[in-house]
Amino acid sequence: MAAGVELGFAAAAGPGGAWRLRSAYFPSKVGGRPAWLGEAGLPGPAALRCGRCQQPCAFLLQLYAPLPDRPDAFHRTLFVFACRGAACYRLPGPRGPLCVFRNQLPRRNDTYPAEPPPEEPPPGLAAAAPPLRLRSGAALCRVCGCLGPRVCGSCRRAAYCGPQHQALDWRRGHRRSCGKHGAGDDSTDAIPEHNEFLFPEYEILIEPEEPEFPADSSVDPGDEQGAVDTSKDPKEQGELGATGSAGEAFQSLDEETLEAMAKHETEEDKIFQTFKERVAAEPEQIIRYCRGGEGPVWVSSENIPDEKDIPNCSCGAKRVFEFQIMPQLLNHLQVDSLGESIDWGTLLVYTCADNCGEGNEYLEEFIWKQDFSAGSI
Predict the structure, then answer these.
(1) How far apart (Å, rounded) are the C-alpha atoms in residues 250 and 190?
(2) What does pTM read for this prediction?
(3) Residue 337: how many CB atoms within 10 A of its CB?
């Protein structure tokens, strides 16, 4: 990732672009099954259970975020998982229905070539079914693509992360194909590309955030009535623009009225206004990435974590803000319902400042959920 803030956008890969979302191409992506980076030390079923309802979490997204100055993190990916139960999102704060893991590899490793992957798909890969197991031999759950230590008691071939996904796969068709193929033949029991447990799959495209410009660039700079004074802060500009002929309006107000209006503008208004201004230029952004640099863009003055709320890494180092997941992602997840729905204002991911990780295992990092305040929605 480059210096400065980088933005992520969801883009449909389509059937012809599915190959780019496989592990060998180091993707950043939303939904589907995880494209695991390293093949050792994957998080097990217990680590991927919701902290509230104890049901399996679904893969939400992964972000490829190598650290150029760290040879041990030449390849580096962050994986975020989220519960599918809407009721589990009622409370803000740490973890709960969410979890995040970090994995990294040096350039020379046992899994991938040292040279970059080709930009063209290998023959047949575009339509390839999701893998049944990793190249290391580790079996993957047929439903969610996570580690699958449990196997079908009948055929002893189909792997699952737990009984919930075994039952789901049985209903979806494994009962019709179980035991009907010979050893080494998976053709009659191929894994469907999608199921109701998985979130829809998208590629994440990364672009640098452009410098801020005045909101109304169509105003003639010579027009004193229409020009916006760029010496004012963005909040003042927004208020003046919203009132039309603001200068004339304010001239007719006495000092007491102006003071009352200023008091009415709460801290909550300021923070939410800042959030809206930051995303206005690119309203479709689903990721804001800036490891150790500019902090998060908060959606509310409520439930902002203090330093003591961010636990140190297991190695003892402090954690630093790395990226945030924006509420716009919810528009792509197809989670709206007539009743309760999965919801958040923003999700904030903090990772080890020292980027520890000898042994290339998957290490759990920290995620914080902030909701919109009741007055801003």
Answers:
(1) 69
(2) 0.83
(3) 9
CA gap 171, 173 in Å, rounded: 6
Furthest C-alpha separation in the chain: 87
Query: What is the C-alpha separation between 75 and 60, in angstroms, rounded?
Result: 20
In terms of C-beta density within 10 A (0-12 exposed, 13-18 middle, 19 or more buried), how is residue 199 classed?
Answer: buried
DSSP letter string, 165-216: HHHHHIIIIIHHHTT-S-TT--GGGPPPS--TTSPPPEEEEEEEPPPP--S-
Task: Say what the pLDDT of residue 224 is.
Answer: 40
CA 301 to chain centre: 22
Whats the size of the chain, residue-wise?
Answer: 377
Contacts of 71 (CB under 8 A, 6+ apart): 106, 107
Which amino acid would we find at residue 319?
R
| Angle between helical axes of 234-242 and 267-280 (0-180°, round to 10) | 90
Residue with tokens 């998957």: 362
φ, ψ of residue 277 to 5 degrees: the values are -70, -40
What does the alpha-carbon distance between residue 88 and residue 6 come to, in Å, rounded to a whole number? 30
Report the sign of the C-alpha dihedral through residues 165, 11, 24, 95, in that order: negative
Is residue 377 predicted with pLDDT exceeding 70?
Answer: no
What is the C-alpha separation between 80 and 350, in angstroms, rounded? Answer: 12
Percentage of residues in the chain having pLDDT higher than 70: 79
Q: How confident is the model at residue 125 (pLDDT cuts 50, 70, 90)?
A: low
- The whole-number pLDDT of residue 181 equals 64
- Tokens in use for 333? 């997840």
Task: Say if residues 350 and 365 touch (Cβ distance below 8 Å).
Answer: yes
235 pLDDT higher than 50: no
Instruction: Count Cβ neighbours within 10 Å for each residue of 101-120 and write b for 16 or more, e otherwise.
Output: bbbbbeeebebbeeeebeee
- Nearest of 310, 305, 234, 309 to residue 275 by alpha carbon: 234
Predicted confidence at residue 361, as pLDDT, reads 92
